[in-house]
Fold this protein.
Amino acid sequence: MPANTPAAPVALARSPADILRGAPPVDLERAREMMARDGLDGLVVSLPINAYHFSGYWPATSRMGYVPNVTVLVSRDPQQPISILTAEFTYYYLLADLPYEYPFRWFLCTAPGGASLVFEDVGAEPLPDFERRRRAAVQAAIQTQPAGADANAAVLKALRATGLDRGRIAVDSPGIELAFVRAGLAAAVVPAEQTLQRIRLIKSPRELELMRMAATANMDAALAAAAAARAGATYRELRTSFYAEAARRGNRGVFMVIGGMSAEGVDRTLRDGDAFLFDAVSEGAGYHGDFARTLFVGEPAPSMRRATRAMLLGWEAIRDAMRPGLRFSEITALGRETVRKAGYVS
């Protein structure tokens, strides 16, 4: 393809927001089962990955490494909706645009001193429809629950409203635990990590669909980038191609291991006869795709042909034997025995 020829458009899968419209990613039924198992009355989380799992919201500022600005409260009581605490402006500018239908309970806070973080309209021009929707969403949230003076006040209001100011509560950050202590709440506070890990072991149908989307986009991007592997191409070119192809499919490139090199500062020029593994990882809607293949530049050497035939033979034997209940030790033993019987190893 000539250098100036634009790449063919990629048909994107449906939006993650469409998948999450009715509920957050987490399997809420399992989450409450795990809370009961661990003797918890609720979870309070603010680390971005946890807040996203329970809400579907992952603000752009969190992706940039700023201090987490969304806290999510989840009661074991299924009659209690998930509560979300955030600043007025965060809700207005980063969250209110998403058309989620789940009945979240919102607790907003203002700037220190009570100043609103939503700018006043001077009326010079008509407001766009999306601005009117944003302002209406903020007003509806404040009318239901008046905004707290600051984040700590909003946290305490949300805890008391959901009954999580008492009982046994798991939290994922020291800052939340400190808020409990400073307010003198009666709740027993414990770390949430083990409970969160058990919750994640079982994926909801929404998560499975998001995972398939991310994995498919990653695989397609990796295969498209592999076409750039030729004599004279560099590791940097391959990484750049993969990241661009991932972005075209709605993913964000995370890393690419090429020829055993994962440090992006390492570069090398490919030559005829090279054989190398590439491992490409990108992320879409909070879930990762991981795809690896061995590439040959030009004609592979006889030793590589032999090794490839051996690997293919072992893989086909393992693939045909795969079934639920098969142990990992049985899988490796079958592969080794198949390759040995074929005379590839002694």
Q: What stands out?
A: The first strand starts at residue 42 and ends at 45. The chain has a mean pLDDT of 91.
